[in-house]
Every structure is written in structure tokens, then in C-alpha cells.
Design goal:
This protein is of the alpha+beta class and 86 residues long. It is 33% helix and 31% strand. It has one domain: Alpha-Beta Plaits (2-Layer Sandwich).
């Protein structure tokens, strides 16, 4: 599993792009690819937990969603995660 860490600014493009992005994540959640996703309580960023095999698959996930290159959205980190409880 992988954790994608995002940072946000107040750019209006981010808010305009968010509904389509959330619809996409909801579909990927149904498919078992996205395990969890959501903004931080202060809306300064978000975390997404992705259940894919390797970094190349995470990069494909990021490349397929225009939200990740929208003004106001910055991918701050991609980390492999090995949970022992789900």
C-alpha cells in the first residue's frame, strides 16, 4: 500500500476540480484501489491510501487524474506503507 500526501492552497481551480476528482476516487474505492481518502481537518492538504503493487502503479494513478496537476494541489510525498491493522 502507498500513502499519497497532498498540500493545498486556496487557488479556485482546486475547488472547481474537486467534484470530478472525488467521483473518480469513489469509483476507485469501489474497485479496491483507493482504501481511504480525505482532506486534513484544516483543509491544508489531504491523504490518500492506495492499494497498488509498486511506485509505477502509484505514478499511473497520479497521472490519470488531472486534479493532481491542478493549480492549488501539490503532491508532497508518496510513501510505501506496510500496515499491520486494517
Amino acid at each position: 500500500m502507498w500513502i499519497v500526501e497532498l498540500a493545498f492552497t486556496s487557488a479556485p481551480e482546486r475547488l472547481a476540480a474537486r467534484p470530478v476528482h472525488r467521483e473518480r476516487l469513489t469509483g476507485l474505492h469501489r474497485d479496491g484501489v483507493v482504501r481511504m481518502a480525505g482532506p486534513l481537518a484544516d483543509d491544508s492538504g489531504a491523504l490518500i491510501v492506495v492499494d497498488v503493487t509498486d511506485r509505477a502503479a502509484v505514478q499511473g494513478f497520479l497521472a490519470a487524474d488531472p486534479y493532481f496537476s491542478t493549480p492549488g494541489v501539490e503532491v508532497r510525498g508518496v510513501r510505501e506503507w506496510s500496515p499491520f491493522l486494517l
